[in-house]
Amino acid sequence: MSSPSFTMSLLLSLSLFSLFAFIAQAQNTMETTVCLASLPPPAFQLAFYNTTPNAFTLALRMGLTRSESLFRWVWEANRGNPVGENATLTFGTDGNLVLAHADGRVAWQTNTANKGVVGLKLLPTGNLVLYNSNGGFVWQSFDYPTDTLLVGQSLRAGGVSKLVSRASETENKDGPYSLVMEPKGLALYYKSANSPKPLLYFSFSERINIQTGTLDNVTLNVSPDTDEGYAYNINLDYQVAKSSSSGGIILARPKYNATSTFLRLGIDGNIKLYTYNDKVDWGAWEVTFSLFDRDNSIWETECQLPERCGSFGVCEDSQCVACPSSSGVLLGWSKTCAPEKLTSCKANSFHYYKLEGVDHFLSKYTTGSATKEVDCGKKCSSDCKCLGYFYNQDTSRCWIAYDLKTLTKVANSTHVGYIKAPNH
Ligand SMILES: *[C@@H]1O[C@H](CO)[C@@H](O)[C@H](O)[C@H]1NC(C)=O
Ligand SMILES: *[C@@H]1O[C@H](CO)[C@@H](O)[C@H](O)[C@H]1NC(C)=O
Ligand SMILES: *[C@@H]1O[C@H](CO)[C@@H](O)[C@H](O)[C@H]1NC(C)=O
Ligand SMILES: *[C@@H]1O[C@H](CO)[C@@H](O)[C@H](O)[C@H]1NC(C)=O
């Protein structure tokens, strides 16, 4: 599609189809789809979707035309800033692509006015590009991932270097989890309103650990294992800046053509790969990798997910097994399990109860501070936001917890937790 400007109005009759309801209705689908579509396979389309009434997101979806009912949203333009009905998407003669509210206020744009853009196209890889007369990309959607990486897409130093989870199925705004490419590695963080800074709950440091230089990019790649293509390797490959140093980790190895894959940081903070097997007529999407996994502990168990057991719970073998209480009894876990509300932060208004043989989700990937157990307690007592502290008596390490969430059961009773509870 080259230079003519086009305007597309959102239709009033859009019906709700959520990001996670994979069966979209064909009729409505047609109405919401902007004229851009790449050729299959796999097919990508630029479309509007909504998960709450009258709040639309411009997004790219992935699926095969042979089975139009199977779409996955893989990129979005205006997360956290939805548009209402009669919004317009305009590709102007100046080369700027603009999504505007009905009253003309700009909701999102590519900022490419007068930068030599002569056309707009959606590549078969799912990359939406604005290109110049030499065919160079002035802007590309691959540079702006939100929670998803497509094959060939990267996190980049000096660009978007992290994925941020979505808040919930209905709320399309930033959630608490992020996958961050750091100078020396790749890590997962949880950020809540209580915690002053994001908390590390997983690090790839055993597989990616840069000694010299800094990471330039991390890219999702898929390649056949051998010329025959009996198996396909799905990799996260990394490159070190200004160096020939590089490497990769194989995440999955499906025994079919796995070219149509994407990686997503989910609402729950897990990382999964979704692969489309085009030989299959229905149920063709398969989860080919799960970082936190119930059955396969090559990577991590589900217990290491901060919110696996909701706001409070003890997790063992990926299951929530107990709800701690100040009376010292471990009750059966349910979704309502929560720490008791503190009435005040004065020293005489609360006490601690002790849990033996537990780790906080922070304990595994952060070192904690080297202090005496009693000083660890004092630190928590003098900090209103501290909800409890965790201590390893073997290593004399202390962790202050601003969020309790999921505690993991460990064999060693020298790993202890002290939870604040109100004095009644
Ligand atoms: C694998 O799938 C991709 C995309 O669907 C396709 O372009 C490619 O030709 C396939 N490879 C083989 C060996 O069939
Ligand atoms: C959208 O446009 C239609 C047709 O012009 C109009 O009837 C409707 O009131 C508009 N809605 C809003 C929210 O502007
Ligand atoms: C990744 O980084 C390397 C080294 O700096 C660079 O040569 C390469 O072009 C980068 N790839 C992407 C996809 O950005
Ligand atoms: C607990 O940890 C200590 C020190 O690391 C070790 O000596 C001991 O054997 C562990 N106990 C169990 C039950 O794993």
From TrEMBL:
Pfam families reported for this sequence: B_lectin
UniProt-listed InterPro entries: Bulb-type_lectin_dom, Bulb-type_lectin_dom_sf, G-type_lectin_kinases/EP1-like, Pan_app, SLSG/EP1
Name of the protein in its database record: Epidermis-specific secreted glycoprotein EP1
Keywords: Disulfide bond, Glycoprotein, Signal
Keyword Transmembrane helix listed: no
CDD domains with a match to the protein in the record: B_lectin, PAN_AP_plant
All copies of domain Bulb-type lectin, residue ranges: 21-143
PANTHER family: G-TYPE LECTIN S-RECEPTOR-LIKE SERINE/THREONINE-PROTEIN KINASE SD2-5 (PTHR47976), RECEPTOR-LIKE SERINE_THREONINE-PROTEIN KINASE (PTHR47976:SF115)
Domain of life the protein comes from: Eukaryota
Signal sequence segment: 1-26
Domain Apple: 345-423
